[in-house]
Design goal:
Strand order of the largest sheet: 2-1-3-4
Structural class: alpha+beta
Largest sheet: 4 strands, antiparallel
Number of helices: 8
Helix content: 25-40%
Distance between the termini: 50 Å
Order of helices and strands: HHHHEEHHEEEEEEHEH
Number of strands: 9
Radius of gyration: 25 Å
Length: 213
């Protein structure tokens, strides 16, 4: 419905007044890849519209602009990971592990990807070591990938399962989830030890994950 509303608003901006009913039907039919019906001769000759001919050029231009735009309706950011992007902590190529991606965005616009939440926390705890000249206070946004949904979520609102039998690219990990119910389900299924929040993560917990066998 959001998409249809946006199309409708764009058509109105192009001063197509009144907008014929067949335009709305055509827009809704795009999702189902249906044919767009042309208006009937009776419609064109009825005198109920100000058009002397169907406004196909304007409609097509509107739809082209709409679908060529890069729009995200979710709360998570749109992320493009290049094959050259390396984790600043371990040096691994992050694109190989989409299910484990984490991201930190700094206030100056620079950003870094990680192949797991564990390395992301290492960067937060010792920011200057991995990015000289930056501090944790320069961080603007932090994201982790929900293990079940495989989508980026706000790291500070996530629930993390530790001590499970699931290993990430860098071994034992903090498994992020966007709600407690999913975290609890995962913990029960994979022998997790506890669920913690962002503010509960400490350097001691990170070190214990690295040394766990």
């Amino acid at each position: 419905m959001k998409l249809f509303s946006l199309v409708w608003l764009l058509l109105m901006k192009l001063s197509i007044k009144p907008v014929p009913a067949y335009v709305g039907r055509a827009v809704r039919a795009l999702g189902a890849k249906a044919r767009t019906a042309r208006p009937t001769a009776n419609f064109l000759m009825s005198g109920t519209t100000a058009f002397s001919r169907p406004p196909y050029p304007k409609i097509m231009l509107c739809l082209f602009l709409l679908f060529s735009m890069n729009i995200s309706y979710g709360d998570e950011p749109e992320v493009t990971i290049k094959k050259t992007d390396r984790c600043p902590v371990c040096g691994m190529f992050v694109y190989k592990y989409p299910k484990w991606v984490a991201q930190i965005i700094f206030k100056d616009g620079s950003y870094y990807f990680y192949d797991g939440a564990k390395d992301m926390f290492k960067h937060i705890f010792d920011t200057a070591k991995y990015t000289p000249g930056k501090t944790a206070g320069n961080i603007k946004d932090i994201y982790v990938t929900d293990y079940y949904e495989v989508e980026l979520i706000d790291a500070k609102s996530a629930f993390y399962v530790i001590g499970s039998d699931v290993l990430g690219p860098m071994g034992h990990e903090l498994l992020p989830f966007k709600n407690r119910e999913s975290a609890q389900e995962f913990m029960e299924d994979h022998k997790g030890k506890s669920i913690i929040r962002f503010q509960d993560v400490t350097t001691a917990i990170i070190e214990s994950l690295d040394h766990r066998t």
